[in-house]
Amino acid sequence: MILAIDTAGPVLGIALVRTCTVVDSYEEDRGLRHVEDLVPGIERILARTGLTPGAIDAVAVSAGPGSFTGLRVGMATAKGFALARGISVYSVSTLAAFARQEIEARKKGDAQNSGGLAGAAGATDTVAAIVPILDARKGRVYGAVFEPDRGARRTEDLDLPVEELVRRVTAITGSRRWVWVGPEATATGFSPAPPISESRSAAPGTALLAAEMIDAGIPPDDPYAGPTYLRSGDIGEKKRVVRFGGKRGDTS
């Protein structure tokens, strides 16, 4: 039994997976209040499935890219839970997790009734690529391109303006359609819009990828593994911007 945690995006996600099957999933959307909602959410999903912490064999966590603070909250909680239980932590790319659950939903052909997996409208339609994205702020998105059948990567995780990501996707797919995936997929504003799968969290895909890692004999995280950041943080950097009513160029 794998407990999966996703705090990379705007929606908190928790899922339970047994032998590559989603047992239950839970989401909370309260505006990036993951630090308040994560532990109660874990307690809630365990209670409604009748499980105890002792039933969990491994913890999976989406490692980013995503919200800097959110990723730290998720990984710290995952490691704390695993340390208390003496079990392993498996971390996976958040974008790969979104792609994995979109592929699973398309296999099922049912966007609304797939064990916590959300799929694009018309999930049985053929697309040339799956493109999970998250808002990276500053007019940019985190994104990557995956093949739609087995989820093979066509790009690494990227931090780009959406227009540049569209150019990358178009270069790979040509004139064929792709599907945006993620909780903020509608915010791209790209027109004409490809199909959109507004998967709210990557928790089910995170657990499924971890289950596949375990089946393949891939070792768990090093105890000091941390979040995947695609850019450096802003704290401590000097910027030529107005601060606290000062004049432009004042970085004090």
Features:
single chain; 252 residues; alpha/beta; Nucleotidyltransferase, domain 5; 2 domains; disordered C terminus
Please summarize what this structure is:
With 252 residues, this protein is α/β, with parallel strands linked by helices. The chain has 2 domains: 2-94 and 202-215, 2-Layer Sandwich (Nucleotidyltransferase, domain 5), CATH 3.30.420; 96-197, Nucleotidyltransferase, domain 5 (2-Layer Sandwich), CATH 3.30.420. It has 5 helices and 10 strands, in the order E-E-E-H-E-H-E-H-E-E-E-H-E-E-H.
Topology, element by element:
Layout (H helix, E strand, L loop, with lengths): L1 E5 L5 E7 L2 E8 L5 H16 L8 E5 L5 H18 L2 E5 L1 H15 L20 E9 L2 E4 L14 E4 H12 L4 E4 L14 E2 L5 H13 L37
Parallel strand pairs: 1-4, 4-5, 6-9, 9-10
Antiparallel strand pairs: 1-2, 2-3, 6-7, 7-8
Helix pairs in contact: 1-2, 3-5
Description:
29% of the residues lie in helices and 21% in strands. With 252 residues, it is of the alpha/beta class. It has 2 domains: 2-94 and 202-215, ATPase, nucleotide binding domain (Nucleotidyltransferase, domain 5, 2-Layer Sandwich), CATH 3.30.420; 96-197, Nucleotidyltransferase, domain 5. Strands 3-2-1-4-5 form a 5-stranded mixed beta sheet, with helices on both faces. Strands 8-7-6-9-10 form a 5-stranded mixed beta sheet, with helices on both faces. Helix 1 crosses helix 2 (68-85) and helix 3 (94-108) packs across helix 5. The termini are far apart.
Return the string of H and E elements.
EEEHEHEHEEEHEEH
Number of strands: 10
Report the β-strand fraction as a percent range.
15-25%
In CATH terms, what is the fold-level topology of the largest domain? Answer: Nucleotidyltransferase, domain 5
Average pLDDT, all residues: 83
CATH architecture of the largest domain: 2-Layer Sandwich
Low-confidence stretches: 111-115, 235-252
